[in-house]
Structures
1.
Amino acid sequence: MVDSLKKPDLQEIRPGVKAPAKDTILTPRFYTTDFDEMAQMDLSLNEEELLAILEELRTDYNRHHFVRSDVFDKSWDCISGETRQVFVEFLERSCTSEFSGFLLYKELSRRLKGKNPMLAECFDLISRDEARHAGFLNKAMSDFNMQLDLGFLTKSKKYTFFKPKFILYATYLSEKIGYWRYITIFRHLESHPENEIYPIFRFFENWCQDENRHGDFFSALMKSQPQILNDWKARLWCRFFLLSVFATMYLNDLRASGFYAALGLNAREYDIEVIEKTNKTAGRVFPVILNVDHPDFFKRLDVAATANAKLTAVAESNQPAPLKALRKLPHIVNIGWQIASLYFMKPIDMVTKRGEVY
């Protein structure tokens, strides 16, 4: 990479291989779960829908889609400075997230084979899609003379254990918010092609259909296990995961607003649209969703995003560690207070709206 285009944050573990981003509460995580409990799931309550989705996954609509054409065959040094840095960070976060999904789904497929064959095959086919996405993103990073060592990432990342029901909440939301993120960018650039700074965005329409199918699979899987959706604990956990996913995206995207500006997007307006649509989509299966129309909802996220920016500035300063810790504390407390206030905001009861009886 041309030295003038390098940023201190783009650290390398060896030439051309980017050091993984440091684990923080906002970075993509790698997950593991109770595979035996997952294998014992009885799918009979929603087997028909799951079989229909399995047939779609077998069809593999995008098997010829992720092929790089000659539009990539040029120098991308025209993307420079801060825009280059935040774009590489966007590619890295996206690649890490897709690769995390691949590892989890592949391991689920391996552990469930012979115990729950339909579920094992679904996870195997979904892992196929995630591997393609991760590989395509990593290849895109190489256009900026930087890649991730996915093998090193597999061994070096810490794995977070979630019980199966939490895996289902989290992966469902991850896939559905991924759909809305990709399709919103695609539609914007379709209307404003002058803002397409890099051709990977042309692939987002078909790409997001993979995300949508994966989300539909997890929705159908949750419907086959009504016990994880129909009690008071489910209501609390659904609120928790919705807020966690929304707040993580919002804080990350406002910090990287320069990337969205390069695409002709306002990061805050983009996130609001994605959050509103994801929240509405989640209402098809979750017993409750967040009241994102409440006048305080995005105001509190804005306060948290401002505090997060100050927290980042302190973390990146050259001050002694004890002083850093002291200066971080009020911003951490502020973020915690805003998120807690949002969590206890009255949610919207979707069971009543859908007219369901458990």
2.
Amino acid sequence: MNANRLTTPKEKVQQLQEKLGHAAEENKKRKFHALYDKVHRWDVLCEAWKRVRANKGAAGIDAVTLADIEKHGEISFIKECQRELQEGTYHPDPVRRQYIPKKDGKQRPLGIPTVRDRVVQMATKLMIEPIFEADFHETSFGFRPKRGAKEH
């Protein structure tokens, strides 16, 4: 494959992430003012949808499931997300509250965003993660990619 000819959304997103991460590494004081346009890029939204779909998960407050989106058309769903983001009309929905039993008999609240909101959140994560990663020390773990809080 020609290195200049990226074909899949995943490859394009990886290249963009590498550029953002490199820019953040090169200049630790750099401010990233214009990332919103990258969140609504077609390749970024396609990759975000793919990851959300792979994570599975329940429907949010709107009761729209992953299967519903697949049935009605993934392309039209992604286009609608992109349009709302580009036009500035996107607003996240309230989360659906679910309670999960804990071992001590109490219940823990869990907020379940809509699939649409999870896609937008994932697109945002894809763009900001490489920038924040540049600020972490190698010995930092926690909620970082391919690292666990219990590693050392």
3.
Amino acid sequence: MVQAWFMDTETTDQRLEHHRNPPEYVSLDDLYAKTGVEYFKINVDGPQADEALEKIRKERGYSYEDQITCSKECLPDYETKLKNFFTEHLHTDEEIRLVMDGSGYFDVRDGEEQWIRISVVRGDMIIIPSGIYHRFTLDSKNFITAKRYFIGEPVWLPYNRPADDMECRQQYVKRLSEGFK
């Protein structure tokens, strides 16, 4: 089961947990209310047969999927890619990740600019809304395989912070102030 918590502001090693002392955990309901990030537990042993995944794909119109493996052995220019993933950015589309193996962290900003770290493992699927500032890193195991879902052909372009003038950011901030539904 996914865990989320408020992070310390100082991070010397991005691959460690970095929670407040004592940890201040965030429930899935609060995670959604504070950020719009959605979580689903998916049966990855047979994702084509998993009703929850098929329902999500159909409702949201995800028509394209691929798979990425992040590890020193599989990802060209590994350290540079990890630094890029960890640079605070947003996307114009949702970011959907289903962890097939391994583990990692997604960090998202709440409405008060606090970092919330989301630990994901096998079977965790998160949907990060368009326009939210976020970043990704591996944990100390340095390995993750994840499926990525898109509506149509993938457009996976990160816009590094600041990108406050972008329409997707303005729409996200509006949704954040009005509450996610």
4.
Amino acid sequence: MGKIKAGAKVKEGLGNFEVIEIEKPRLRDVDDVLFRVTSVGMCGTDVSIYKWTDTIAREYHPQFPLVIGHEMSGIVEEVGTNVTKFKPGDHITVNEHIFCGKCDQCKAGRTCICSDRDILGCHINGGMTEYMVVRQKNCFKLPDSVPHYAGSIAEPLSVAVHAVERVPVERDQIVVVYGVGTIGLGVCIVLLEAGAKVIAVGVEKDEKRLAIAKELGAVPVVTRRPESADILDVVRALGGTSGADVAFECSGASPALVSALEVIHPAGKVCEVGIPGKDIALDVGGQLVFKEKTVVGSRAFYHSTWDKTMKLLETNADKAEKLITHQLPLEKFADAIDLIQSGECIKAVVCPSKN
């Protein structure tokens, strides 16, 4: 079959990202889809794999070398004999969760918390390569409006769509989004499509990201004053006299969750999407019990979420494309780690092969 290039974590420890050669994959099953990879998004999970924290080592424990990359898209080249939804030439994206479909969580539709699940690019080889084979059920046809280099944005956008599945919003509700990275901005897109009044919160170094939030239609806020006073000023200006209706915490910063609980009104809801690096002390009595506020966790997405994402992309591809600020060739895939950590990058996309 021949050799192809891939970006991989070759051993444990800090760094150890290298371009290697692997065998070109081939169809193994009647339900397989072989596609040429045109875009792979890099994100915070890839940074954690690069750093190889104890949490990552304990969660993923892969065999090395591990081909990274869990946000991917490409062009179909060959399909198995049972594949009916796709044909050569189709532009597809991939749900990287290889869920079992048999456990209680899968049967309930909650595939992201499957008890026997592998994640492409984390537990097993992913999409940072020129060609890949996945099963038909994990593939989704991208709308024609999505450029080939931008197809991998569907994965983080699915995370955003699922967050709003977990805590739905109504037209004209006031919603605060903490964090203006790819996920936070994606949540803004979903909320604005639903007709909500959106406030996007960042820190001073997020100037460029907040500018994009404003382009999308959100009200940008840089937090400077303590006790969420600056955010509450904007909430009140939008008509939220007793606070915001909902807050989405997408930064993973501990103070942001505390602030989110402060800016919502009694009986309001917070969706925690970010992953804090340490435990957070919350005023459980004063906020959750006495004011009946709710905190809901949101992990990744359900398999069914992706159908909603494809519909959203049909009419919002131009907005989602704004989140991609850097494109790199496969040979420079490791450089994306520095870009992400610099704060200059929203979404870095690696393009293993040309259209």
